[in-house]
Design goal:
Layout lengths: L1 H4 L7 H13 L1 H4 L2 H27 L2 E3 L6 E3 L1 H19 L3 E3 L5 E4 L2 E3 L2 E3 L5
Length: 123
């Protein structure tokens, strides 16, 4: 149990904090090794998407070829899009939910219904 408290070292600070928020507050619900692997993969994808977004911010949305001068979408745009999609997919598989009124804090492992996520009562 104690080893789950510490986030993987390769994660960025934001992802490490999400790990702590989830594993510490929801520890009894995430103990299965499969869920831990999915959580780590989701947060790794989030970090990759953020890194790609930083590169695009610095270098711009487009690149030019040196030989012809043709303009292309920066390759990191695709990396960002794919990793944000992977993050969202894994987050849904883990049944994690965000409450926007609590500044994006993780609020539960709600069960899914046809209309969305049913939250357990707080308190």
């Amino acid at each position: 149990m104690e080893t789950l408290q510490s986030p993987p070292e390769h994660l960025r600070e934001r992802s490490q904090q999400l790990w702590r928020d989830i594993v510490v507050t929801k520890r009894k619900n995430i103990i299965s090794p499969g869920r831990v692997v999915l959580l780590e993969q989701a947060l790794t994808a989030l970090d990759r998407a953020d890194e790609a977004a930083e590169i695009v911010r610095k270098e711009g949305m487009v690149t030019k070829t040196t030989t012809t001068g043709a303009v292309h979408v920066h390759p990191m745009v695709k990396v960002e899009r794919e990793n944000r999609g992977l993050f969202a997919k894994l987050w849904r598989q883990l049944r994690l939910d965000f409450d926007l009124q609590v500044d994006g804090k993780v609020v539960g492992w709600g069960r899914r219904t046809r209309t969305g996520v049913c939250r357990r009562p707080h308190g």
